[in-house]
Amino acid sequence: MIPRYTRPEMADIWSPQSKYRIWFEIEAHATDKLAELGVVPADAAQAVWKAKDMSFDVDRIDEIEREVKHDVIAFLTHLAELVGDDARFVHQGLTSSDVLDTCLAVQLKRASDLLLAGMDRVLAALKKRAFEHKMTACIGRSHGIHAEPTTMGLKFARFYAEFDRNRARLVQAREEIATCAISGAIGTYANVNPAVEAHVADAMDLNVEPISTQVIPRDRHAAFFATLGLIASAIENVAVEVRHLQRSEVREAQEFFSKGQKGSSAMPHKRNPILTENLTGLARLVRSAVVPAMENVALWHERDISHSSVERGIGPDATAHLDFALHRTASMIEGLIVHEDRCRENLETYGGIHNSQRVLLALTQAGASREDSYRLVQRNGMKTWDEGGKLVEHLKADEGVTVLLSDDQIEACFDETYHFKHVDTIFDRVFGAS
Amino acid sequence: MIPRYTRPEMADIWSPQSKYRIWFEIEAHATDKLAELGVVPADAAQAVWKAKDMSFDVDRIDEIEREVKHDVIAFLTHLAELVGDDARFVHQGLTSSDVLDTCLAVQLKRASDLLLAGMDRVLAALKKRAFEHKMTACIGRSHGIHAEPTTMGLKFARFYAEFDRNRARLVQAREEIATCAISGAIGTYANVNPAVEAHVADAMDLNVEPISTQVIPRDRHAAFFATLGLIASAIENVAVEVRHLQRSEVREAQEFFSKGQKGSSAMPHKRNPILTENLTGLARLVRSAVVPAMENVALWHERDISHSSVERGIGPDATAHLDFALHRTASMIEGLIVHEDRCRENLETYGGIHNSQRVLLALTQAGASREDSYRLVQRNGMKTWDEGGKLVEHLKADEGVTVLLSDDQIEACFDETYHFKHVDTIFDRVFGAS
Amino acid sequence: MIPRYTRPEMADIWSPQSKYRIWFEIEAHATDKLAELGVVPADAAQAVWKAKDMSFDVDRIDEIEREVKHDVIAFLTHLAELVGDDARFVHQGLTSSDVLDTCLAVQLKRASDLLLAGMDRVLAALKKRAFEHKMTACIGRSHGIHAEPTTMGLKFARFYAEFDRNRARLVQAREEIATCAISGAIGTYANVNPAVEAHVADAMDLNVEPISTQVIPRDRHAAFFATLGLIASAIENVAVEVRHLQRSEVREAQEFFSKGQKGSSAMPHKRNPILTENLTGLARLVRSAVVPAMENVALWHERDISHSSVERGIGPDATAHLDFALHRTASMIEGLIVHEDRCRENLETYGGIHNSQRVLLALTQAGASREDSYRLVQRNGMKTWDEGGKLVEHLKADEGVTVLLSDDQIEACFDETYHFKHVDTIFDRVFGAS
Amino acid sequence: MIPRYTRPEMADIWSPQSKYRIWFEIEAHATDKLAELGVVPADAAQAVWKAKDMSFDVDRIDEIEREVKHDVIAFLTHLAELVGDDARFVHQGLTSSDVLDTCLAVQLKRASDLLLAGMDRVLAALKKRAFEHKMTACIGRSHGIHAEPTTMGLKFARFYAEFDRNRARLVQAREEIATCAISGAIGTYANVNPAVEAHVADAMDLNVEPISTQVIPRDRHAAFFATLGLIASAIENVAVEVRHLQRSEVREAQEFFSKGQKGSSAMPHKRNPILTENLTGLARLVRSAVVPAMENVALWHERDISHSSVERGIGPDATAHLDFALHRTASMIEGLIVHEDRCRENLETYGGIHNSQRVLLALTQAGASREDSYRLVQRNGMKTWDEGGKLVEHLKADEGVTVLLSDDQIEACFDETYHFKHVDTIFDRVFGAS
User: How many CB atoms lie within 10 A of CB C34?
Assistant: First the structure.
C-alpha cells in the first residue's frame, strides 16, 4: 500500500491489529461450537472470549513468530498469554489455513464494502453531472476526429453505465469471495465437524465453502482481482476522456484547480490534468494484480503456499489503490469544470462538416446513388476542411447538389436539435424512466 | 487460431463466410425495419433478402477492400453486385461499427455456446469420475508433502466445483457480451431510429445496448476475456494435478495411452503426461488475452479503432484455444487411468505419520498441554520419517505417550474410515443431495 | 498469425515447409558428423543429402503424425520414404528436442533479421524526417498542456533514439536466442558426442548452448519476447504521438491519405489516423507474449512440454505482427504529412505564455524573490489564459513587472530562437556529429 | 514494499530521507555549474552546500506539500528554511522532472547494485553446490517421468548458467537506466545549459541522457523491469525444482529446517518447502511489474505523469521483493540438504529402463531397423515398467534381442559412467576451464 494512495479506512482493514482481531473471532466462534459439540470444555470456550476487549500485542506476536517461524502458532501462543491455559482448547482440529483463508475472506469482503461505497460515490457524481449537462452540445469524435454532435451529458451517462455494470460485477465478486472454510488439514473435516464451519460462517456472515482443500479455492480470488482490474479500466476510461478534454487545444473541461495549488514549478500558467493522469497510472497498477491472481489458481495437490506472498502484496495494494482511485475519480468528477463555451466553439470549428452524414442521406433519398452522393458530399466536405467556410454554403454553391436538393432542404440538414432527439431515450435506459 | 488447437466448429464461427453471413443478416433486418418506418422502400428491403441463400465471394470482397480500404464498404459493394441497385438502401443511417460490433457480439455469443458445451462435457466427466472414485483412498498433500488421507473422488469433486463456478461466470459473461448496437456514427441515433436497433436485437436474439458510442463499450469484452482467463486457469489447475499424479515417483494416475502412440523417439518406455502439459501451456496462451482486453477499454472519446487489431487476434484465438483445451481436458479426464494400488501404496509409505494430527488431538484430550502433545508426536513422527517403521508402533513404545494413551486408544487414531466420514456431506454440497 | 497483419517473408519462416527444411538440415549435418566420428556409415550420411533438393510432403507427414502422435518420428518416417533405408542412421543419439529447439533458434534468428530490417527502415524514416523538420517550430506539451516550444525534428529524433536503443536490445536478444543444443535426452550427451553439436552449430551459424537439459533454457526465449514487447511499446509511443497530432483540434500532422481510400462509410470528410490506431492495438497484441514467455521459464526438472503450445502461438504471432507493425510504422512515418502552418498556429494560440519560464528567470535575476517572481508571472499568465491577448503586452502593462524589467528586457524573453539554440547539440548526440 | 519481504538496505534506498538527499545533491551540483557559468552567484552556490550535513525534515516537507500540492516546490521551500535566502538560486532553469527522474535513475542504479550483490551470492552458492555434487548421480526427468541419469551438480550448474545470463542482462539494464537529464521543461535546454547536465551526470556517476523530453524516456525503465521479471522467473525455476525434489515421494533434497521451526500447526512431522513456495509467489509478484512498466512507455507528447504512480509502486516493490528473494534463494541453496541415498534409490526404481535409449542404439548398430529396435526395446521396457524386475535381465531373456546382442553387449548398455563422461566438458563451459 503506497501511503499517498491509501485511505485510512482501507489501511485499517489490512492492519495487523485487524487481522488478529478477525483471527480471534474465528477461533473463538469455532471454540464455542466445539464446546457445544462436547469436544472442548464449555468453560474453556467461554474463557477465550476474555480476549474480546483486550488488545493484541503485534510486536510480541512478531517476536514469537521469529522464533517458531509460524504465524498462527505465534498468535495462539500470545492468546494463551492473554487468556491463560484455556487457550489450549482453541484451534482444536483446525489447520492454520482455516483461519488465514477465512480471515482473508472477511478482509476482502470488507474491502468490497468500501469499494462499493466508492463506486456509489462515483455513480452519484456521474449521474448528477450527466443530468446537469444532458443537453450541453459538443462535438463527438471518433479516431480523435470530429464526427457528429453529442452532449457532455451522454459522456457522463456512458461512464455511469460502465460503472454500474462494474458495480454489479463487484457485488457478484464480493458474494463469491465471502466464504468460510474450516475443513482441517486437507479439507476432509477429519478432525473437525462441518458444524463448526457452519457456525463460524454464520457468525462471521460468510457462506460455507462447499469443498475446500487445505485452502479456499483460488479461482474465487482470481475472479475478485479480475473484477478490480475491470473497475480500474473503467477509471482509466473516464480519466483518458478528461485528459483529452482538458488538453490546451480542446479545453472543454478542466479538473478543479484550488487556489493554493501550483501547477508547475516552471510554468505558472499551466493547469495540468494531474488527477486523471495519476488515475491512469493507478489503473495500470491495480490491473497488474490480475495475472498473478490467475497464476495462483493452480496450486499443487491440496495446496502449496505460493499464493500467500502474492496475496500479501496484491490483497492490500489492489484494494487500497483502487479505493483511493475511486474517491479521487469521484471528487474529480464532482469538481470538474465544463467549459460550455469551448464545447460550442469546437463544435463549430469545421464549418458544420459533422453534418455530412445527413447530407449524404438526403442526397440518397433524393435519388442519387450511394457512390454519387458520397462523391458530392466528399468534395464539399474536403473544400470546407481545406479552405474553411461553412459546408452549408459550399453545398448551396455546388450545382451537382442543387439539382437534387433545394436550399431549404440543404439547410434542414444543419439543424442541431436533430442530433439530440433521442437523448431522453438513452437517459431513460441508463438511469431508468423518470 | 493455431490449427492443431482449433476445432472446426469454432473455426467456422470466425470464418469470413460466417462473418459476412452475420453482417448480411444485421443489414437485412435493419433494412426491414427502415422500410417499416418508411425510411427506405419496402420493395428494396425485400429485394435484399435475395442474398439470403447466396454465397458471398470472400475473394471478391477482399479485392474490393484492397481498393477502398474499408471492409464494410467492400461488403456493401459486393452485396450490390449480388442483389442489384436496391442495395443502396442498405446501411442507411448506420455506421460500420454498428455492423461490426453487433457481429462480434453474435460471434462471441456463439463461441460461448460452444464453450459452455465444452464445459458441460468437462463437468460430466469430472462428476462421473468423482463418483467412481468417491472412496478411493489416497494421500492428501500440502506443500507436496504427505498430510492426511483424502480420496481421488474429492479431487475430481473440487475441480467439478471450480468448473461449475466458472460455468456460471461464463453464462453471465455470455449474457453481458450479447448486445446489439445500431446507434449511428456517434451513438446518438441521429440518423437511425432506435427502433431499428430494437428490431435487429430481437431478430438476432441479442439485448439492446443501453448506451453506446460509435462502439459497444469494451468493458463487456474485457469481462468476457477475463472469464476465459479464469476458465483457462481452472484447466491449468486440473492439468497440474494430473501431471503430479503421473510423475514416475507418484504414478497414481496416468493419461490414457493409445496403442499406436509413441511416447518418445528415444525412450520407448515413457508414458508422458503430454496432454496435461499441453493444457498447461494452452492456459497461459488463453490467459494472455486478459490484459490486452482490459487495455482496450479506454478508447479515445467516442471511439478509436485500436481495439480492433487486438480483437482480430484474441477473439478467435482465445475462444478457439480454450474450446480445444476444454475438449482435451474432458477426454483426458474421461480416459484417465487411476492406479488404485499405487494410491494405497503411497498412502502407506510413511508408516502412518499422516495420522499425527489425530494423535495430537488424542493426547491433548487426554490432558497433555498443546506443547507437550506436539513434542510427543513430533519425536515419534520424526523417528518414523527418519528410521521407517510404523508410527503406531513407535508411539506404543514411547512411555511419554503410553502414560496418557492406551494401546487401543493409540490404534484408534489409525482407523482410516475416520477420515472419510464426511465425504458424503461434501459430495452432497457439490453435486446436490442424492 | 493474423493474415492481414503478416508479411509473406515472415509467414515463410514459420511455414511447415520451412520448418521441415530446417529439421532436415539439422539432421543431415548431425549425421555428417556422426559419420565422421564413425558412429554411422559414411555412405548413409551422404545418402541423406539426397533429400536436399526434394520437397517434403507436409500432408503426408501430418498423416503419419496422426498415427504415431509424434512429430519428429513422423518426419523421420517420411524422410525414409524419400531417401530410403539409410535414413535409419539419422537422428542417432539425438532427442526430438535437439531438433525442435535448434530449429526454433534458427527461426527466431531469421525472424530477428527481418525485424532488424524493419527497424532499420523505421530508423531511416525517422532520421530523414527529423532532419527535414529539425527546425520546424511547434509547441511542446506536458500533460497535454502547452509548455515551451520545441521542434517537430526533436520529436522524430527522440523516437529515433528509442528505436535505436531497441535495435541494440534486439541485436543482443538475437545473439542470445541463436543457440544450438544437440545434447540428447537429458542434456548429458550420453548418446551423442558434443562434437556433433559443435558441427551443427557451426553449419547452421549458431552458438553452442553451454548447458541444456532436454531443451534449450527458456530464459533465452523470455528475454527475446520481452524485447519484442519493448519494441512494440516504442511503436505505441510513436503511434500515440501521431494520433494526438492528427486530432481535429491539433492537426499538426496527418497520416498519408491515398486517393482511393474512404475514411468512413458515413462521414466522407474524415481523415482518421487509422494506421496509428491499428499500431496501438498491435502493440498490445505483441506485448501479450511477454508474460506467457516468462511463465515458460520454470519447466519441471529436465523439461516439460508446456512451453510448446505457448510458443506455437507466440512464436509466429509476436514476430509476424511486430514485423508487420514495423513496416506499417515505417511507411506511416515516411508518408506523414506535417502541417507546418498548423504547428505555427498552435504555437501562438495562447499569447506566448509558453515563455513564462523565461520571464520568471528574468525577474529572479532582476532581484525578485522566487515567490514574488512566480506571483507576477502567474497573474499575467492567467490573464492571458483567461482573457486572451499577448503575455508580452500584459507584462509591459504590469507595474509590478516594469519596476524590475524594461520593455526590451521583457521582449527579449519572447525571442523564439532562444529555445532552439541547443537543437544541434541534441542532434549530434542522437545521430552523431556531422 | 511488503515489510517481511524487504531488507533494510533496499528499504533505505527508497526512504524519503534518501530521496531528499539525492534531490539535494542534484540541485547543489547543478547550482555549482550554474555559478561557474555565471548564471547564479558563486557565493549562493557555495551556501547551498551548508545543507550537506543537515537532516531534511520529512514531516515538514509533507506539510508544505499538502499546501502547495507539488513535491519539488515543497522540498525547495524547506531547503530555503535550512540554508536561507540563497536557496532562491537553486533549481534555476530546471524543471521538477529533471530532479525526479535523475533521482530515480540514482535509486534504480543503487538498487541494481544490491541486486547484483544478491545475484553474486546466488551464483556463488550455486557454483559451490554444483562442484560439491558434480558427480552425485540422480535420475533425469522429462515430463516428470524418469528418463536418463544426470547429476545433481548439473542441475545446480544449469541454474548457475541462467543466473549468469541474467546477471549480464542486469548489468546492461543498470547501465541503461543510469542516465541524467537536466534539460528543462520540454527537453530543449532552453533555460539551462547542457553543461549543467554534464556536470551533474559526472558528479552523480551517471551517463548523460542524449535526448529527453520533460522526462527520461520510459523504455529504459521498461527494459529494467523486464529484466527483473527475467530474474524472478529464474528464481521460480530453481524454486520449482527444489519443491519437486522435496516432495514426499522424491525426497532428493530438502530445505534446511532449523531446530525451533514448526512445519505445521497440525502435522508436526512435516518439513515443507515453504521457502521455495514463497519464492514462487514472489516471482509472480515481481513479474507483475513488467506489463505496467511497458504501458508507461507511450506518454503523451513531451510527457504526462501517468507513469509516476505506477513507479511509486513498482519501483520500490519490484526491487525490494526481488532483492529479498535473491537472498532467500541464496540461503536456501547454501543450506539445501541433498539426500544422495534417495537420489540413488530413485535412480534404480524402474529396473534400469532409463538405459533404453542405449539399448535402442546398440540394436540399431547391430543391424536392426529403427522400427524393429524400437519394438524390441519397447516390449522389454513395458515389461519392466509393468512387472518390475531389471530391464537388463528381461533383455537377456528376449530372443529377439539376443540374436542381435550378446549378454556382454547388453550389460555394457547399463554402465552408469557412460552417462557422465561429458560432465567435465559441461562444467568447463559453464564455469570456465579449470
Answer: 26
pLDDT above 80 for B129:
yes
Is the pLDDT confidence value at B432 over 60? yes
Find the mean pLDDT for residues C132-139: 97
- What is the predicted pLDDT for the residue at A326? 98
Name the residue range of residue C107's domain: 95-344
Do C144 and C208 fall into the same domain?
yes
Number of C-beta neighbours around residue C367 at 10 A? 9
Confidence bin at C31 (pLDDT 50/70/90): very high
What is the reported pLDDT for C301?
98
CATH code of residue D38 = 1.10.275.10
Query: Residue B85 in contact with residue A367, Cβ under 8 Å?
Result: no
CB-based contacts of C424: which residues, under 8 Å, 6+ apart?
A: none
Beta B179-180 vs B207-208: how paired, if at all?
parallel
Q: ipTM of this model?
A: 0.94
The beta-carbon neighbor of B290 closest among A283, A290, A302 is A290
- The whole-number average pLDDT for the span D186-201 is 96
Give the separation between CA D368 and CA D376, rounded to whole angstroms. Answer: 10
A426 within domain boundaries: no
Residue closest to C307 by CA, chosen among C91, C68, C97: C97
pTM of the model: 0.96
Beta bridge partners of B2: none
- What CATH number does residue C311 fall under? 1.20.200.10
- Give the pairing type, strands C253-254 and C145-151: unpaired
Cβ contact (<8 Å) for B302 and A194?
no
| Same domain assignment for residues A245 and A320 | yes
- Interface touch A147/B364, C-beta < 8 Å: no
DSSP H helices, B133-218, are 152-177, 194-203
Instruction: Evaluate whether residue D431 is within a structural domain.
Output: no
The total number of residues shown for chain A amounts to: 434
What does the angle CA B39 – CA B44 – CA B50 come to, to the nearest 5 degrees? 140
B139 vs B89: CA distance, rounded Å: 70
Compare all CA atoms of chain A with the CA of B418 and give the residue at the minimum distance: A190
End-to-end CA distance of chain D: 42
pLDDT at A14: 98
Find cell 529436465 and name the residue. C302
Confidence category of residue B265, pLDDT binned at 50, 70, 90: very low
What are the φ and ψ backbone dihedral angles of A415, each rounded to 5 degrees? Answer: -80, 115
Q: H or E stretch including D138?
A: strand D137-142
| Contact residues on chain D for C189, CB-CB shorter than 8 A | 421-422, 425-426
Residue D156 in any domain: the answer is: yes
Q: Do B150 and B233 fall into the same domain?
A: yes
Single out the residue of C94, C62, C88 nearest to residue C75, CA to CA.
C62
Phi, psi of C213 (to 5 degrees): -105, -130
- The single-letter DSSP state of residue A210 is S
Determine, yes or no, domain membership for A424.
no
CA of A43, closest CA in chain D: separation in Å? 24
Residue B265 in contact with residue A326, Cβ under 8 Å?
no
- Work out how many domains chain A is built from and give that number: 3
Q: Tell me the pLDDT of chain C averaged across its residues.
A: 94
Q: Is the pLDDT of residue B354 over 50?
A: yes
- Summarize the confidence of residues B133-150 as an average pLDDT: 95
Which of D96, D245, D306 to mutate to test binding with chain A, by most A CBs within 10 Å of its CB? D306
- Bridge partners (DSSP) listed for residue C137: C151
Which regions of A221-323 does DSSP assign to beta strands (E)?
A: 253-254
Q: Which of D15, D55, D70, D264 is catalytic?
A: D264
Q: Under an 8 A CB cutoff, do B144 and D248 touch?
A: yes
CATH of the domain at D406: 1.10.40.30
Instruction: Looking at the structure, tell me whether residues A104 and A53 fall in a common domain.
Output: no
* Cα dihedral C228, C234, C240, C242 in deg (nearest 10): -120
